[in-house]
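Thread: "does anyone have the structure for this chain?"

Original post by V.I.:
We have the sequence but no experimental structure in hand. Need at least a predicted one for the grant figures.
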Amino acid sequence: MRNFYAFFIFSYYTSPTWCFQDPGKDLMTCIDGGQDVNVCAEKTLENVRETMDTGLPELGLPPIDPMHLKVIDFKFYNLTVEFFDVNMFGFKGFSLKSSNVDKKKRTWDIKLSLPRINAVGMYKLFGTIPPGLDLGLSTGDERFSADSVDASVKLTLGSKGKNIAVTGLDLRIELDEINLELECLFPKNGACCPKKYLKSCNANLTKTVLKFINRDGKNFVKEFQPEISKKVGVILKDYFTKAIASTEASYLIDL
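Reply from O.Q.:
Generated one for you, tokens below.
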């Protein structure tokens, strides 16, 4: 019994809850210690990295690696594409390129690079691609990956009482190339063909369509950029709002 009690006390004092550090308060402590606001903002971002896959229940922060998106829908030429129940992985592996807080303009500009982003989920696709090829309706599992992803985040800051508030977030994504795989393209009588390429009932046409999409990756991203930015932006805005909610506004903006 004595050993069990000792183990319980040790577990409690070394648990994540006991070791919890509020990034908003840590940011103020850093600035109060005489360091520049931008140095401290960078440290905050690096510290937040460690909880991206676990979240911070104490602040109501959910995990964001993976990040779950309910639906992303957009047009690519005359093709309608819907991705849903998507989980995106790779945010924790970011490299911070720059971070700049402008207290006068009330903005926080962040530039990140991500070596790789992977996503899995479901898709629905229908419509036509040049030169007028009708693809019918397909749905199934999807896998998406992108290398060398650059992201620019602009936070607009304000105040809520005496504390900081994130009043807006703008997200821009740039990448070099993508690789998209869609299972069960061109089903036969509503059923996939499990023994064929990506479970497609028309393997040659599937390869042609995916080659067309992946080859034109930047234009593909250009089309769904506004939608994915909006969906991811909402999640990131909520994340930053909660992460630095305890920071007093005067530390990040001119009042």
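V.I.: this helps a lot. Residues 4-18 have pLDDT under 50 and may be disordered.
O.Q.: and The beta strands are 67-76, 78-89, 95-102, 107-129, 133-160, 163-174, 177-182.
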